[in-house]
Amino acid sequence: MTASNPYRDESHARPGGLPPGDAHLDSAAQLMNRIGSQLGTRLGLVSLDGTRRPAPPALVLVAHGSRDPRALATVRTLVDRVRELRPLLPVRLGHIELNEPLLPDTLASLGDGRAVLVPLLLGRGHHVKRDIPEAAAAARADTRVAAPLGPHPLLVETLYARLVEAGWRTTLSDAQRRASAVVLAAAGSRDPDSAADTRRTARLLAERLGVPVVPAYASAATPTVAGAVRALTARGRHRIAVASYFAAPGRFAAECAGAAPWIAAAPLGAHPAMARLVLHRYAQTLAAPEAAAEHALTSA
Questions:
Q1: What's 105-164 look like in SS3?
Q2: Which of 126, 165, 208, 271 reaches 20 to 30 Å from 154, CA-CA?
Q3: 180-239 pLDDT, tens per residue?
Q4: Rounded to two decimals, what is the model's pTM?
């Protein structure tokens, strides 16, 4: 089955071959929308009494970093989508390693301003508990660190959409359901909290799909994707898909996809739900007392 891509840009499609006059009207409407958006952005900086409102804390999206150039392109696209949703919000990017800008450099560029660091990470592993808080503590900026993106229903929405793109049927017969299963392929961590977060996401995805979902790992934990596939096959599940629980393309994501016996979904990437989730974590951190925000880094 070839699934249509619901995220394909169809903004320039002209069904039925509309005449050129309509095309000009369409272009004029788009221009007016852009002007209105820019005007709204400028007016939003001014309060009712005419004084300038203080700028909101910057949102610093913290990515892991990868040698795969597709990862950096994906993260930059996600940053652009966040900016489109919140044009008044300063949005920056910082990497833990391998790519520029590195997180300490991004934080240094903020001076003594305010910022919320949102990890583009899916569970409570070492980077979330140690590396990011330590970088935040060393910066001059007034920073707070958000919880990782997972587990969360918006991640499940994204995983489901990526599976459908890869060929997963949105409706299954009883026979298909009995034969189907999903392996949730994640990076892996020795931290038990990270594994618990991945298992929680697997349970949420299983509820969404109505079939078993088994977490598996590219490193540092078991089972591997191949091991999970063998276990599911032994249970009579022969239509096994691999869901990619990775924020962006990279070596681990490619290796896990290569072990799929049937279809393999793309990584989470810059799906619109991911941009909404980033903004949710930002707002959640600002709304919570600092002690509660710190607690979120160490508890589910």
A1: HHHHHCCCCEEEEEECCCCCCHHHHHHHHHHHHHCCCEEEECCCCCCCHHHHHHHHHHHH
A2: 126
A3: 999 999 999 999 999 999 999 999 999 999 999 999 999 999 999 999 999 999 999 999
A4: 0.80
For residue 50, the tally of other CB atoms under 10 A from its CB is: 6
Which residues are marked as active site?
Answer: 64
Both structure tokens of 266: 């793309």
The two structure tokens encoding residue 168: 């997963």
For residue 243, give the 3-state DSSP assignment: strand
Give the whole-angstrom CA distance, residue 222 versus residue 137. Answer: 34
CB neighbour list of residue 185: distance below 8 Å, 6 or more residues apart: 216, 217, 218, 225, 242, 243, 244, 245, 246, 253, 256, 257
Q: How many CA atoms lie within 13 A of 236 on its CB side?
A: 6
Whole-angstrom distance, CA of residue 112 vs CA of residue 212: 49
> Does the bond joining 151 to the residue before it have cis omega, within 30 degrees of 0?
yes
